[in-house]
Task: inverse folding
């Protein structure tokens, strides 16, 4: 029998549940908030607590729920609120509350049915689904690792044979050609950063650029958020270079301004373009062809381009940037309100803009102890590639308020290093798939049905 306590400040519900003789009522109806905590500290095996927001006491309802969950994490809470409060509901559901009703909204029979059939809606069911997903991912990773080992071994063997069969000059020529190809591929990396307003796209773009400094010679950040242009403010520099400022001051034709004139040097490896709005044909409008030409020109000069985009979904240029990027990072915060906004925006990108779902890599920013658990977030965003999470950090305010241009502190370095590695891993896989020689080797081995054991078949 399920063990239940009520804390409604009114004994009626408690008495009705007792008469049903289906559950074990562990006490009389508790009449004050602190009484719930006192009872649970002595009895930690309670299955359900049914309580009212109107219960007398000095504890805010959010804090009361948190304290109950600290004492017994598995307890299921049914809460009756006085009036509609969507923000409070979202917060409490994120904290794992079982069900929320309003006074006079539900009867005793419905409460009994709800508690008897709770397994369908319990968090345990979600955990089972997540465990199943994890198993599938582990199996997939094992197969991928076996395939990678297979391809690696075969490629190494082929290289050894080539060394024996080819002359030194021929070998050096191949190495030179491969180096040139790799160099060209490096110049084609564009990372698009998108997400809803206020999730930290600008700070992330700057820190991501810093994390790539050790391996990329030339990095460019472009602030394409023309409504909330903020990268130059965070970095403590002026929006336009001096030459461009003089052109604007002297009323020179803005149509004569070239993309190269907007580049501002941040340090030896990172440059910034913040005044991109000067290249627009009219307010908030720029042609697709012009976007492509801008990116083509910049690819010639930079190994990596990071583009901070607008959160508004009515700008076609954002769509064009996403389509021309090698890697799309979508940022959201790990709370129900932001997730709702993120889902709506992603729905537009995928269903209206026709950008494949697999192109988006989800990053949870400003993560803290009150955020939704990562396992639940993975379930919510199933079907998307999850890039990871970044904790909220006091250095962010230092960067904004004092234009701190120093390298990331140790905690941030660790987090961005993890994100950095995941980006590189996915880019390497994509590059291998695009490489014709690599693909022909895959086809050759599958065609001849050789070494199937190594593939786990």
Result:
């Amino acid at each position: 029998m399920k063990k239940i306590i009520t804390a409604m400040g009114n004994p009626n519900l408690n008495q009705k549940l007792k008469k049903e003789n289906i559950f074990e009522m562990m006490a009389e109806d508790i009449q004050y908030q602190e009484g719930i905590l006192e009872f649970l500290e002595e009895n930690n095996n309670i299955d359900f607590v049914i309580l009212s927001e109107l219960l007398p006491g000095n504890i805010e309802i959010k804090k009361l729920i948190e304290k109950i969950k600290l004492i017994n994490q598995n307890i299921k809470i049914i809460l009756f609120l006085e009036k509609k409060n969507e923000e409070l509901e979202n917060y409490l559901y994120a904290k794992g509350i079982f069900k929320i009703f309003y006074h006079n909204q539900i009867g005793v029979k419905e409460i009994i049915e709800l508690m008897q059939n709770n397994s369908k809606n319990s968090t345990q069911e979600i955990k089972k689904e997540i465990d199943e997903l994890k198993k599938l991912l582990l199996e997939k990773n094992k197969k991928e690792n076996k395939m990678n080992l297979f391809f690696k071994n075969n490629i190494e063997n082929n290289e050894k044979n080539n060394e024996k069969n080819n002359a030194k000059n021929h070998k050096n020529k191949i190495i030179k050609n491969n180096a040139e190809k790799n160099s060209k591929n490096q110049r084609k990396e564009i990372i698009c950063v998108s997400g809803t307003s206020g999730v930290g796209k600008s700070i992330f773009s700057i820190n991501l650029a810093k994390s790539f400094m050790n391996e990329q010679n030339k990095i460019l950040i472009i602030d394409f958020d023309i409504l909330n242009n903020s990268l130059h403010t965070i970095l403590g520099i002026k929006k336009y270079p001096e030459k461009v400022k003089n052109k604007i001051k002297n009323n020179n034709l803005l149509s004569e301004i070239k993309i190269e004139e907007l580049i501002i040097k941040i340090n030896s490896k990172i440059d910034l373009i913040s005044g991109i709005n000067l290249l627009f044909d009219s307010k908030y409008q720029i042609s697709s062809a012009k976007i492509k030409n801008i990116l083509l020109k910049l690819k010639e000069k930079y190994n990596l381009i990071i583009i901070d985009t607008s959160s508004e979904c009515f700008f076609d240029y954002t769509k064009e940037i996403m389509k021309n990027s090698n890697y799309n990072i979508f940022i959201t915060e790990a709370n129900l309100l932001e997730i709702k906004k993120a889902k709506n925006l992603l729905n537009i990108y995928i269903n209206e803009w026709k950008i494949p779902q697999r192109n988006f890599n989800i990053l949870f920013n400003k993560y803290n102890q009150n955020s939704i658990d990562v396992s639940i977030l993975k379930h919510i965003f199933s079907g998307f590639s999850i890039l990871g999470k970044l904790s909220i950090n006091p250095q962010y305010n230092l960067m904004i308020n004092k234009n701190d241009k120093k390298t990331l502190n140790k905690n941030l370095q660790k987090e961005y290093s993890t994100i950095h590695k995941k980006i590189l891993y996915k880019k390497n896989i994509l590059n291998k798939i695009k490489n014709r020689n690599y693909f022909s080797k895959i086809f050759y081995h599958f065609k001849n049905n050789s070494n199937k054991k190594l593939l786990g078949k």
In short: The first strand starts at residue 3 and ends at 7. DSSP finds 17 helices and 13 strands in the chain.
